[in-house]
Amino acid sequence: MTASLALDLNLGGGAMTGDRPSWSSGCARNWKPLIVLQQDSTDLNPLLLRLAEHLNEHQPHPALVHGDLWGGNAASLSDGRGSIFDPASWWADREVDLAMTRLFGGFSENFRSAYRDVLPDAPGADGRVEIYNLYHLLNHANLFGGSYLSQCRASLRELARRV
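^ thats the sequence. predicted structure below, dont judge the formating
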């Protein structure tokens, strides 16, 4: 089994260029997998097309997101207020940040619940978490290798089963 990795899954269309994307015009078409994840000659194109179709059914309002919202980029100040830092900001669906809070830990369900009290989840939000987190898993597999590659494969299998 061989795998070759590279990455440019520009989810929102503006990450590389700074342009504000138009989700409805097909942000998922901007998924140009520089990552070619070859598993026993598995053709990922049909799955990527299904993921693109699934994302294009969702019509979010673009939001300026943190872009790297994991526990290592957040802390509590001495007065108890929260603080986030080291952003990789871009225009995207706000759900990308919320999805990442589940991926690498550091954020409790209380955090997500408080967020939903202010901005409730859009219909189908839970079904997009795995898709949005795949971007970060692929990126980490490319940068660090190791167990991230098996996590990518597991995520792709789960998405193929569900979408």
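Strands lie at 63-65, 74-76, 82-84, 90-92.
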